[in-house]
Amino acid sequence: MSGAKPVEVAAGPLARWRPASLALQLQENLKSKLGKLGKVGGGKGVREVSKGGKKEPKSGMSFPGGVCLAGDRSSCVDLAGVGVRRKRLAGIAAITAYAVGVYFDNGDVARQKGGGFGVRRDTPEKLLDGVVANTRKNVIRLVVVFPKATGKMISKSLDDQIGDKLRAQGHGACFETFTEAFQGEKFRKGTVITFASKNGMLTTFIDGRKKNSVKSTPLNRALVDLYLGQDTITKDVRADTLSSLAGFL
């Protein structure tokens, strides 16, 4: 191959490039585009984009501006709001259990605002209702604050909040499979739990490790309602998300 001549492009701006140099140039262009997104991190199954990130003020926990499933750029979603979950434990004053970040696709939000789903949403509350009802993908991210938290505690808390409701609706088996992700888990301060939903498939990651996936739109909707609904357990997450959505109006 040492005697092979490089192929020349007949005309146009690429005429002076050889194949090898063209490949290098394309690689550099890709690096440049990724660089503009900010630092990319996360675990094996989850990728984070730092640009547009935010620190939750009460806990000091940081949330990236974007989250994607590894190898699936179509799954990427954008940070919409942050807050904390406070909980009273027996014999202990109310503690901050974990910080919460919610993510939606900005494209979905824009379509809701413009009436892309048949109803024009002209207030932050209406816009949030539309996004929650029609979202194709979203992420709920929990960052553990209470250092003695365990998977059993998280599982029981979720069971208390949405378990019975899902069982009554006939989705108990999906919920039980979902909570299996927490079996035997012991968390530290800073442990990241990611619930990523796309087209009805809800996948749970703990520090980037994929734990399981459950096909259940009702389960995902129950989780979103838990953190963003009218009767949310995290009022500051809802308020911060509404503030963000107001920027689309």
From TrEMBL:
GO terms for molecular function: intramolecular lyase activity. Residues 41-60 are annotated as: Disordered. Residues 132-241 form the Chalcone isomerase domain. Gene3D superfamilies: 1.10.890.20, 3.50.70.10. It comes from the Eukaryota. Residues 45-58 have a biased composition (Basic and acidic residues). Belongs to the chalcone isomerase family. PANTHER family: CHALCONE ISOMERASE DOMAIN-CONTAINING PROTEIN, FATTY-ACID-BINDING PROTEIN 1. This is Chalcone_isomerase domain-containing protein.
